[in-house]
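Q: Could you fold this chain for me?
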Amino acid sequence: MPRYFSYARSVLLALGCAPGFVAAQTNWTQLTPPTSPPTVTAHAMAFYRQFGQPTGATVLFGGVRAGTYSNEMWMWDGTNWSQATPATLPPARVAHTMAYAAPNSRLVLFGGIGVGGALLGDTWEWNGWFWQQKAPQNQPSARRSHAMAYMPNRGTVVLWGGYDGTDLGDMWEWNGQNWLPISTLHRPPARRATDIAFDPVNNGLLLFSGYQQPADTWLFDGTDWTQLMPVTSPSARYDHSMVTDPVRRRIVMFGGPGAADQWEWDGSNWLQRSPATLPAARSDTYLAYDEDREEVLMFGSSPTPETWRYAPTHNATVSISGAGCAGSLGQAPVLGPMTRPWIGETFSTRILPVPANTIALMIYGFSDTFSPTLGPLPVSLAGIGMPGCTLQVDSVLIDSFPAAGTVAIWNLPLPNSAALLGGKIYCQGAALDPGANAFGAIVSNHAELTIGGK
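A: Sure. Below is the predicted structure, expressed as structure tokens.
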């Protein structure tokens, strides 16, 4: 396919000649909110967003503080903690689990150890206003130190293992009304104090290690369990926490007895990260992924009430604005869906709809406010026979590529160079459309890409 090169692409290619290794692009930051929950351990945390609301909050419930079991509920809004006091709260407990079921906007809580040491087998849901105890026909046995996560491709909250006087290896799923057992041909050995998290690369649940277990990694693909053999693996551990980072498509793991270390699962291997700042070692802490701020939150299991965030030092973001002009199909093409622009990966977006099997164009450069050759942006294209169309980005470079039907896919490989981090690229789609106007072309809206590192 024809491709037109210019200074912009040569800059990217030159950066690509830098050494391929890029140090970890993530870091822990200790936050200092005005208000904080008391020091607590063996609690549970999960992000929650009420249906139809643009923002959510991380919910913390229960745990033990100063030897006393708690049923306090706290919420993190990204800046501060506040204690929630709904009319009804589940009983105080420790070693329980919570998971957010996004489709029905419910936060599911199960089990743990109650006051007096009795194991609990109750199921509760938080709907944004109040807690409701559920009365399912079937349910797992009362237990503690189990693992639980939402599995999108089954549409259910999945519970695995735990301890009820003996280590457990059973698996259940909550469909919003009832607990149903999941039977598999293979399964990990029974265990407690492990954790599971959804693997967005393999569309399965990942389990790692546990109390008195080896450093084994298992994947549940929705039908069966498979033991994985990654090249690199963390040391065996228990009372650790794992959470899915859907934006970076990673599982983040922290905690467990021993020295503090930071690990991530990338879908095929465990990666040990070396952030500049690392929290002190701790067990029975919990991680939650803040979907609004695209970062991992950690609280508790330390001598002081510490709140930590874990996030990329440079996040990859996409912002779409402006509008295109309609052509022979009667509507303006738009950009999307898009991947995120991460160094070392290929950024991809679509232009659609365009005339069937036409030649599409991607115009891109380093500004959407000024062009050295054309002046302030946007610029009307009426003067060249494209009424109602505007050039919205600096046209430093233009790529051409064929559409497949009415969809054109543009790919931009980004070199694995730290020099690109935080850099911006502005792009606008276009397509040949002889029936649209005198010039025979149309343009889309445009996007601002901020290049990040995982």
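A (continued): Residues 7-15 form the longest helix (9 residues).
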